[in-house]
Structure formats: structure tokens, C-alpha cells
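thought: fold this chain, then report.
action: predict
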Amino acid sequence: MNKLLNLTKINIARFKLFCGLSSSGNDITHYYERYFKNKLGWSHRPTMKFSYVGTSNIQKRSHLPCSFGFTLAEVLITLGIIGVVAAMTLPTLIQNYQKQVVITRLKYAYNVFSNVLKRAEADYGNITEWGLDSEGLADYSSIDKGALRESFVRKYMLPYISDAKFTTDKSLSYYGYKREITRPSGSMAYPVDYGAPMVIQFKNGMIIIVNVGTATSADDPDKKVVSGLNFVIDVDGPSGQNRMGRDVYWANVPYVTNSRFMFWRDFTISDNKVLTLKPVTRASLISDCKESGTFCATLIQQDGWQIKDDYPW
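observation:
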């Protein structure tokens, strides 16, 4: 401190010039000493009134003898730096938010429909006892798919869902879609004028299209059987990109004794109504997700409900 207070005339002159004060008299020396004794720094410089000798110019400024600010150039440079940083980080923040929305709503759909199936089976017995399995291993083309869907959804699903409603036989444009649902390759999966046979709408904006699904019989590779119901889950409805693997995902509920709500993957159904999942590797899930987008939800689930860096986002 003694060294700091041993100020030269040059330092005093510089301080006077910086503060715009008079260069005459010893009044500045007094203020300069008091100023640097304040250990709180520039933002807390002394504001108390001092008794100065001589210079009326100083007395007029006694409450704030040295005012500091930023020049226009400094402000513009700072704003420019902030803009560059924002431009670099904002896209990543938006993408992370979008991924989190997908994960949250996929988990929500999975939990809701898994709980619905468990509660329905508790009330009505195994799904194969619901009177729906009479068509379960019949020729797919001979099934009244509309009646099958409506019976399943009205009786076994909607009573257990509190925040959803369903409509039938409306095109996607009826729900606000302005563009078709596409696959990752760019090919069209569902056009805007697609007559969605049945749609479940959730209050959070999620839209689920319900279809009758097929599978290959394990006992006859040439035989297509009605495997259950398929669900096309659009996590953000018409407001998103409407691309499979990005905001649209597939799931299904099979008509088998070991039924479950599950995200789409390859499986077979035997004549005794038992579902068998085909072995799958993570590499094959990523490959399919890049090309068709069918197995993307399974990939997210198997990755521990994460969208990892190598996910084809």
C-alpha cells in the first residue's frame, strides 16, 4: 500500500486527465490516496463528499468525481461477441430440447399404453380371450379391420386413458397436417390426404394413428396373419417435421398370450399365439433407422431412453 501511495506526478496527471479534472492544486492527491485505499475496487469507489481546496470545477463533481462508461464502439463489439456466441450455441440448445421432447413423449406413450394393456387384461383376461383373436390367425385380407380397430380402442383402451379422444375416418389434413409424413430417405409414408382409419389425440399435442398389423407366421413363411394393432406415434402432431425417426415412431400391441405394448421390431407369431422376437443388433437398428425409420423408437429405448450422438437425427 505504501508503494501504491507513493504516487509520482506523472500518475497524478494521468488520473486527472482520465477523470477530466483540473490539473492544479494538491486536492487531487488527497482524493487519489483515498481512492486507492478503498479495497472494494472501481465499482465501489468513494462517493462521500470531500473538502477540496481551490478548484470549483472539482467541487461540482464531488459526489462522483470520476465517472466511467463505455464507448459506442465498445458496446457494439460486446454485442457482436454475444451474437456470435449465441449463433454458435443456440442450434445445439434447440436440438437438445427437441430430443428431450421426443424422449419424454415416447416414454409417456410407452407408459400409458403399457398400463392400459395391463388394466384391460386385469378386467377382461388375457388379450387372446377378448374375442379379437378369432381373426388373429386368419387371412389378413378377409378381416373387417375397421370393426376390429374400433372394438379394441373403444372397449379396451379409451376407458383407461383420461387425457385423449379418438376420431375415425378423417384425413391427416383434418388434424392440421400441411405436409405428408415421410421416411428418412424422403419417400412418403403417409400423404396429407391419407384417410386415417382411427386417430387418438392427446392433450399434449401427440397424435397416434391406429392400424391393423400383420406378421409372418412362424409355421408358414408364406402366410400373413393379423398380428395385432399398430400405432404410428407423432410426438408433436402436425407442428413438427413429420419425419419417421425424428418425431414419428412405430409401436404395436400383438394378439398373443405374452402380449405387450412395444416399439416396432421384427417378430414372429406361432400358431399357439406366442410372440417371438427376432435377434437384433444395435448396428441393424441404426441402419434401419437411417433408411426407413421403423425401428428408431426401439433404438432409443434400448439405448436407455437416450438419443445418442450416432443416432440418425
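thought: worth noting. The chain has eight helices and ten strands.
final: C-alpha cells above.
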